[in-house]
Amino acid sequence: xxxxxxxxxxxxxxxxxxxxxxxxxxxxxxxxxxxxxxxxxxxxxxxxxxxxxxxxxxxxxxxxxxxxxxxxxxxxxxxxxxxxxxxxxxxxxxxxxxxxxxxxxxxxxxxxxxxxxxxxxxxxxxxxxxxxxxxxxxxxxxxxxxxxxxxxxxxxxxxxxxxxxxxxxxxxxxxxxxxxxxxxxxxxxxxxxxxxxxxxxxxx
Length: 204
Known about the structure:
Shape: globular
Helix content: over 70%
Distance between the termini: 45 Å
Strand content: under 5%
Order of helices and strands: HHHHHHHHH
Number of domains: 1
Number of helices: 9
């Protein structure tokens, strides 16, 4: 119930959407939040005039600002506490494997990872922290952060808005949201499987 996008929107409205986007973008405890499906649902509900009564352009603007602000927070946190964070033991809400996954993603794609990570759940939460801990040049991070936050925030919300005007999508929202979750999580699953194969091939 708590992670159901429509319930979140109907209960907390615009403030709830922006809070989730901010937390998932830059707070380590926000990695489990439904960012993609939440934005898609927001666009869909705006198209239908349900719960959200504001222009699409304004929603896109506010979501993009919240996403960029979240990543900025994650970068600052990583810059300040990065080394200690990599030594932190696992807990219920923190797993070193998530941080390591984001670090590998960052090393593989460099500055582009700030944009690409936006579209990969879990990784998008930890990547700005890794960027800060790696002392990535601030101006470079800010540029890619704005581009990534805008593409993700506007893109997913707008997609929901236009698809929400299609009768089939409106009548099968639950299945559409499940599909979004599966598609967004798929890159993480593929990367995990590749990692396991590589570890098995590596000589002891």
